[in-house]
Amino acid sequence: MWETSSGVQWKGFGDKNTQPQYNGEVLIGKPNGLGVIIFPNGIRYVGEWRYGKYEGQGTYTYGKGKWEGDKYKGKFRGGYRNGQGTYTWSDGDKYVGEFKGDKPNGQGTYTWSDGRKYEGRFKDGKKHGRGTFTSIKGYKYVGEWRRDKPWNVKFYDKNGNIIGKFVNGVKIIEEPVVVVEKKPGVVVWKKPGVVVGKIPGVVVEKKPVVVVEKKPGVVVEKKPGKTLPIIF
User: Which terminus has fewer CB within 10 Å in the chain: N or C?
Assistant: First the structure.
């Protein structure tokens, strides 16, 4: 591949140390069909071509430089990532989903190497639209995102309890509400007091009357019933 004043020219000769080397199918002097191109800095593309551009299914691996070790495997259109694909970073992060204009656009899942994950909508490579972010501790942020930030989002702890939310981008913390059910009190009913009746006097005929004094009735005092305290 030669860069000239009239544009890129595909030739069957060149220096592999300074020019990309292509090996594959050709149509009218340009890669068309299946082919492999390797650049001097180690960048490699293996896949489908159409009129000299990446088109269809392919794998693009970065060489020396800022993105060394990164890899994209998926659909291409007009030389750019477009369609369903997977981009893997050299540090272990990964995006799986839709691409448009060489960036994540549409539905996708971004997984960090430390276990964090976002699943939802993307726009121009940023979280935008409905989505769910899961933290390392299992907390979830669910709702609408705008330009990579939570907009109208509720967040839950790992047990599913709401602990806060974002309203129009403003974070609001909610105190958890703990509801303790009251158990009914236990009531011991009062038993009626027991009363011993008075014993009547005894009279003996034709003898001095012996009067046996009446013994006062014995009254057993009522004990109030016990009420157990209510347990909360």
Answer: C
